[in-house]
Each structure stands twice: as C-alpha cells, then as structure tokens.
Amino acid sequence: MPEDHDWEAYKVPPTRTPVSERTTSVPNPVNFFQSAFSYVFDTPVTFVREWIERWQAKNKFYYYHQKFRRVPDLSQCLDGDYLCYYEAEAQWRRDRMVDQEIVEIVRERMAACKQREGPNQFQNCAKEMELLAQVTKAYQDRYGDLGYHGNARTCLMKQKHRMMEERKAAQE
C-alpha cells in the first residue's frame, strides 16, 4: 500500500469549522430575545418546578393500585342498611372483574402454550388445560346465567339455591 494518499480522490474534510466573523457592531436581536425569554418565562417556571419536585421528594406517595378495604358480604348486612347494600354490591362488582381477569390470564397462558408447543400441545399443555377447566368451571358456577345485569343479590340467591340442591342430593 502506498504511504502517500491521493488527496484529490479522497478529500479530507476541514479539521475545524470556521468561525463566522462579525461584520457589524449591531447586537443580534435573536440573542436578545433568547435571553429575554429565558429570564422572563423559563427561569420562573424552572424555579417553581424544582420547588415542587423538592416538596414532593419529601412526601413520597406510591400509588400502584388502588386498595379497597373488604366490606361485609350482602348476607352479613343488616335489614334496611342501604349503605351496606351499596358497598357489598360494589365489592361484588370488583370481585367479578378480578375473576374475569383471572380467567383471561389463564386463557392467555393456555393459548401461549398451544402456540409454543404446536403439535405436542395435548401432552405438554395438560397442566394448563386442567387449570383453565377448573378456573372456568369456578367462574361459571359463581357468575354463570346472571347475564350482564347480574348483581350481588341474584348471585347470592344462585349460590343459596345451589347449596340447597347439593344438600338435597346428599340426603338422597
């Protein structure tokens, strides 16, 4: 390889960017507006934001999930205690949403196992299939046939009727 390069074929960029020379003594208005904006708008906003961040750093508040306290079931409410009825209904709705999510997560795990295993899904995904069957049966036992407008009272009555049928079948 030759030591001397062909400077015309491979032009080397300049090593330093040339500094523009001022041709006039008039100040640049852009610099004036930038500094005015900085002092009038940016500095106070930055000060307030840093003050708020310092104040919040003292009082850390972690809010990952809203936590509700457990309330008495509808069967534990006193007669005519409408606030207890309302809280039990809200608790039932939250429990139903949690159970729906549990079923959905197990279903997604089952689908992922089927996708991953391919033709061997019946052998390798037997545990997931059994878990999905158990979860869907439990969900269907508790919330099945209630429909969209189901509530805590109808769910409680369904549970009561199921328990009565189980006792009657056990006696026979």
From TrEMBL:
InterPro entries: NADH_UbQ_OxRdtase_su10 (IPR019377), NDUFB10 (IPR039993). It comes from the Eukaryota. It is a peripheral membrane protein. It is found in: Mitochondrion inner membrane. Keywords: Electron transport, Membrane, Mitochondrion, Mitochondrion inner membrane, Respiratory chain, Transport. GO terms for cellular component: mitochondrial inner membrane; respiratory chain complex I. Accessory subunit that is involved in the functional assembly of the mitochondrial respiratory chain complex I. Complex I has an NADH dehydrogenase activity with ubiquinone as an immediate electron acceptor and mediates the transfer of electrons from NADH to the respiratory chain. Belongs to the complex I NDUFB10 subunit family. This is NADH dehydrogenase [ubiquinone] 1 beta subcomplex subunit 10.
